[in-house]
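Data card: per-record layout.
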Amino acid sequence: MNRYFAVIQKNLDEKKWLWLAIAVFFITFSLIAVWKYYNFGYNGLDLAIFNQTFYNTARGDLFGLTIHPPAYLADHFSPLILILVIFYLPFRHPLALIFLQIAAVALTALPIYLTGREVFSQSHVTEKFKVGWGLFFALIFLAGPFSQNFALYEFHLLYFALPFLFLAIYFYLKDSDVWCLIFCGLAILAREDVALVALMLGVLAIFEKRKWILGLVLIFGSISYFFSALKIISFFNEAGGYKFFVYYSWLGSTAPEILINILTHPILILRRLFWGGNIAMILGMLLPFCFLPAVKPKYLILALMPFLQIFLGSPSGSILILKTQYLTLFLPALFLAFIFGIKKIVWLKFFSDKKSLVIAATICAAIYGSIIFGPFASSVYAFTKTGLVAIGTEFKNNLIKKIPAGAAVAASYDFITKLSSRPNIYALNYFFLGKTQFGATEYFLPENTEYLAINFSDFLTYKTSAGDNPLYRESYLSGGRRIRERIEKDGFGVVEILEDLALLKKGAETDIKLFQIYDGERPDIENTQRASFGDINFLGFEIKPASEN
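The structure for this 549-residue chain is written out next.
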């Protein structure tokens, strides 16, 4: 098999195949994204939040956001938006952001290719095996589960930091300190916590005892930038402070208190480290790389701060981390350790004539990881089950068409993304709870709201996500009353309704009653049930003949 591998390498036009692989990745996941978007699959709020932020920024209302008021800067410091909005401006559509995101992920294969080639060009590799390693690592990245999740999971600016971080690592290995600093600087524009990776790159530089000046600049520059960004976020946050510190409230209420508790309760911290969710997360990270990053753990130091960020937070690590944006900051460490791990393995005496075996095992691990952690297999299964158009998609699209482009609207999860290219769009889930994220401040539905686009199934989601959450429990109980009172106050009438989907318009006349309040004894119901959702009691249901509906 080594003979065939060498032949392939000898005749391989690396750059041609690299660009072909990037193009295939971009086209494949763009098509899946279009199908997912058309069928209302982007229902996690993130794409809606970013699209409205970009839309308002394109209008001159920089970082404007009504889904999460008062502005995106109250969540994260991401000046990269001001650069990306140039590419968004001609389209002003959620899919424009998704295509940009897929392109950023796909193009990350380029610096990975350069890094792999650089690492192996500096080793004592025989001439026939010098060719192809960079391409191999780039293909592993594109075929692996994490890049695919990044391409399809909502939208996040963290993904745009990836190509810059890998370029910074490449120039670090090339001893080009200026370019390393430039690309670290570009990477941290994506989000404030990207500075944690740049910080650890500085620590690595000092640890390797060859880049003291670069290390010190990265360490002090990253720390200064991170805390300056937190100051800016706190300024825009109505509740004050950095709201994501709520994840660490189990350790204390202030940064000094958290640090003291970490240092004075080592047993508590160690017990948390060996919690099942953290172990599963670590094993899941390593599996698609055939656990080879563990061979060169020195480079995993790049992931130390992102790991502490997840590990010390609530609810700590889990397999879910592997499928979301939170894994982004781990990837530079994992891939760098993987590349050096491969280099060490293939030049051990035992593997000197078994390089193809290592490569085959790594490819199998990447494919297996993609099947169990990635979105591709589940997307194909969903497509074969639903076809091009899922049940309810056409009605939802027709419902949205009835809402004027400039109208202010409050929407449920699956409607809000497609309605987010407008200056005034509000989250029905926050209005139901009467609280913003983490219950930090009150959430009010403005008086200019003209439409309500509701999926009543969301009320089950509210119960699951907020009913037993101490941050929302009290406000959750009054959620149903809050919505009923607003419907009655503004005279919202039903414009369209089908099963659990409805569009209500302010002041519209209708004969359809969405609810009826019984103050006395309960009515006779054919199929009695008993369930409570906040202050709403589900009594049961009756099935009427089609002629009566």
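Known properties of this structure: The beta strands are 409-411, 425-427, 451-455, 492-498, 501-506, 527-533, 536-541. Residues 123-131 have pLDDT under 50 and may be disordered.

See the next section for split statistics.
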